[in-house]
Amino acid sequence: MTQLVPTPAQLRWQELELGVFIHFGINTFAGKEWSDGTVPASSFNPTELDAGSWVRAAKTAGARYLILTAKHHDGFCLWPTATTDYSVASSPWRGGAGDVVREVAEACKEQGIGLGLYLSPWDRNADCYNHPAAYDDFYVRQLTELCTGYGPLMELWFDGAGSVGRKYDWDRIIAVVKEHQPDAMIFNMGQPTIRWVGNENGLASDPVTYVVDRTSDTQYTETSSGLLAEHYLPPECDVSIRRGWFWHPDDQPKSVEHLLAIYYQSVGMGANLLLNVPPDTRGLIPDRDILVLKEWKAELDRRLSGVVEATLGHHDGGVTLGFPAAVTFNHLELVEDLNAGQRITRHVVSSEGANLIDGMTVGSRRIHQLPVVTASELDVKLSGEGARLLSARVFTGALDADVPAIPEGYEAPTVAPE
Q1: DSSP string covering 72-137, please?
Q2: pLDDT in tens, 167-209
Q3: CB neighbour list of residue 285: distance below 8 Å, 6 or more residues apart
Q4: Sign of CA dihedral 316, 321, 326, 329
Q5: How far apart are CA 60 and CA 78, in angstroms?
Q6: Do 239 and 412 form a contact (C-beta atoms < 8 A)?
Q7: Whole-structure pTM value
Q8: What does the alpha-carbon distance between residue 202 and residue 195 come to, in Å, rounded to a whole number?
Q9: Which of 8, 48, 15, 4 lies closest to 364, judged by CA?
Q10: Rg over CA atoms, the chain
Q11: Which candidate, 82, 171, 173, 77, places its Cα nearest to that of 123?
């Protein structure tokens, strides 16, 4: 494994662990997942839009950042851009004087949560899209507006859908980010600092490696983009609380058990989780979705309660975890020391000679749910040159907790656009 060291900004992002995605736009009112840029701007008219309530819902779930679809693939812009008439300025909402991005930015600032923006490279409305040089000019202007008009951004989300085989002037595009938002994470395209996990089910799998030389392009192709060299790129797992990314009246939120299973297989694997929670045509997140978020967070808090910190005794080949006295638990959390890069390639946890866990990477946070065990000491064997833990703890508060499961056969239902 190449020992590449994360930047302070990457480590800060990994520590955020959980974000909320907000898919909202012209598709919300057209009843579509993909629209082609011809849905009239006049159809965008949320009657009760409350960005503050979106941020409150995100915080209810325990999220530390929020990412808004400022422009999806249809090209409709949620801010009054100077680049196109296809924006909120041409809608009846707020009398054409509204700015969704600004309202979300102000709500995030007020409530102390990080703001990220999604700006689709693919644009199905822009006449200049078929002229790469002209579109690069257009796109750079849009990105500059977003990077200079809304305060600090913690992430810029560049979605690869629709762009396979298309060449953008990424050097010029990323120069805008580096000039105006140098601490923002860059998602998956151009010169990424974080990457897509490779599916829309929200799931990572062991091992979760942070050093890669390629990134997956889209859900709809098996293509990937080479990076010319290896880079430290921790993954982000994206998934929607509903079946679709945009709100549809006949969709329902996932069960608490499904969301729990996603959490264990994303955050609990050492990846970030970005959970989409789409507002409806009122501009509000449905009450049912908010209730599920509350129930999910309450159960997570219950499962990860009764904390007992371990002392760490590092030695050749691993570390001994010591507790003040014998403790009965069913969750173990391990955190790797990533300051020198990701080093752990395998870890085996045992108690009194009996193996309890045999896993691969640890990363920023590895959570194991295991049968109830009582121990005053655990032995952790670590593989990987320079492998070290930063911390370890057990949780004793929910010894009755079942192991949650993903519904059998579940796959994200979004299909490729026509």
Answers
A1: -TT--BSS--SS-S-BGGGSSGGGGT--HHHHHHHHHHHHT-EEEEEE-S--SS-GGGGSHHHHHH
A2: 999 999 999 999 999 999 999 999 999 999 999 999 999 999 9
A3: 53, 54, 57, 277, 278, 279
A4: negative
A5: 24
A6: yes
A7: 0.96
A8: 13
A9: 15
A10: 22
A11: 77
